[in-house]
Amino acid sequence: xxxxxxxxxxxxxxxxxxxxxxxxxxxxxxxxxxxxxxxxxxxxxxxxxxxxxxxxxxxxxxxxxxxxxxxxxxxxxxxxxxxxxxxxxxxxxxxxxxxxxxxxxxxxxxxxxxxxxxxxxxxxxxxxxxxxxxxxxxxxxxxxxxxxxxxxxxxxxxxxxxxxxxxxxxxxxxxxxxxxxxxxxxxxxxxxxxxxxxxxxxxxxxxxxxxxxxxxxxxxxxxxxxxxxxxxxxxxxxxxxxxxxxxxxxxxxxxxxxxxxxxxxxxxxxxxxxxxxxxxxxxxxxxxxxxxxxxxxxxxxxxxxxxxxxxxxxxxxxxxxxxxxxxxxxxxxxxxxxxxxxxxxxxxxxxxxxxxxxxxxxxxxxxxxxxxxxxxxxxxxxxxxxxxxxxxxxxxxxxxxxxxxxxxxxxxxxxxxxxxxxxxxxxxxxxxxxxxxxxxxxxxxxxxxxxxxxxxxxxxxxxxxxxxxxxxxxxxxxxxxxxxxxxxxxxxxxxxxxxxxxxxxxxxxxxxxxxxxxxxxxxxxxxxxxxxxxxxxxxxxxxxxxxxxxxxxxxxxxxxxxxxxxxxxxxxxxxxxxxxxxxx
Length: 584
Description:
The chain is an alpha/beta fold. It has helices at 20-29, 56-62, 73-88, 93-96, 112-123, 127-130, 138-148, 164-177, 194-202, 268-281, 299-313, 324-327, 334-348, 433-436, 441-457, 474-487, 494-498, 504-513, 528-542, 558-566, and strands spanning 2-3, 5-13, 101-106, 154-158, 183-190, 226-234, 246-255, 290-292, 320-321, 350-351, 372-373, 378-385, 389-396, 402-403, 411-418, 464-468, 519-522, 547-555, 575-583. The protein has a 10-stranded mixed β-sheet with strand order 4-3-5-6-2-7-13-12-8-9, with helices on both faces. Helix 2 packs parallel to helix 3, helix 10 packs across helix 11 (299-313) and helix 15 (441-457) crosses helix 18. The model has no long low-confidence stretch (mean pLDDT 96).
């Protein structure tokens, strides 16, 4: 059996517009949104950013929220874009609440903007500050977005750094093909925070001028913020009158398995993801009319993405551009923001220009330098994240039947669990003390349980890696927050930032195991592991893997454990790691 998957609604808010009409106007007129900070409080005013030109109060007013309520900007931006997408699909929350609906959102920053404001009070155990720990994690952010719009449905959150939102769309498509839901709303949201601005700055990849992707003079990226969501439905299930904006024709999720923050010279993960998308759609490279590149503006990303594109398309590279020069790099939201930009380009028939590109680089592709009227039938959208999380989505203007995912029996063939610091000494069986010296406890625990499982199952390399975590490496995040609280915005450790992202564990495992297969991280509170298992079972049923390494890895430092205790919530365990090998 096959089904077509249609996009029936979409919504967007970013630095170049607060809806599809204003974003389209900016794209067609070549108006960028990267500039001086207006809303983010930071000492680094020298860094250009792509901010949404709406204050938190303006967002609350638009959403009919009490102005006195403290809500993360990530949540507000997400709710603002989600409201648009639902209305654009000709639906209401009330109608959706009578259907099987899944809301899948991607984020990494989540409620960090609130946590960093109240962190000092949290360390002192002040109840007024401790209550905001409830908004910190990624899953809570998604729950709050749905709550603000009165949406009652299944909810999960993807946290694979800069590919989060695109992976959310891929996960949603696969849920529809598995008949797990009737309607999916998928995408992502991210706000600027002092935490991740300084984290990226510590990596020395931020340009002090507006970014110039693929240009020979490029010096780095500009951070941005925003949100976008799309409504996905099986074409057979659409009974109301609604304009179909595009169809999902193919997708790919692969891992570069090279480095936490850099890409391999030949762009292996990017190449594999794009190739998978085209193979699934059964189209030739020459059939692609436009590529919306990840194109961050860093020397490494643009060179390696270019290498991957040249490997796949040869000398016939389709018109390609990066729209991050317009919006800034909206990190976890970038995949869905750029998906909606692709929808706008397809519907209006033009290829967006690569803003500020003037000087060719022989190591890079030559991007679109002017806005070009052109019918777009097949469009490829790329989103690549830390840890080598590389994903590609192919959109088409004609329906592409995709094979249903039929469930099958699975079994656990190996399992390992760790929940105390003392057990971590067992890691020396697999990794030298020198190699593990800069690793946090949670990463050590995840490696230990994963490597024990693989040894028990007599498997050198799994076909896929799926991780579940509520907080990620929370200890590293706290250390970075400590630095910001005590020393201000100087002396931030790049290692702490690099290891604070939720998908660091999945990326580290892939790098160590040389696993270029499917790689994803779920962060939906205590339900994270259930979602990871569901995904693993679908992956096995699709025949895209024979063995899947699935892990649930979490930690919670004492400061935050005390916060949960003070506000009367369940107190998370200090350390927990469980890994299994799942097969058919």
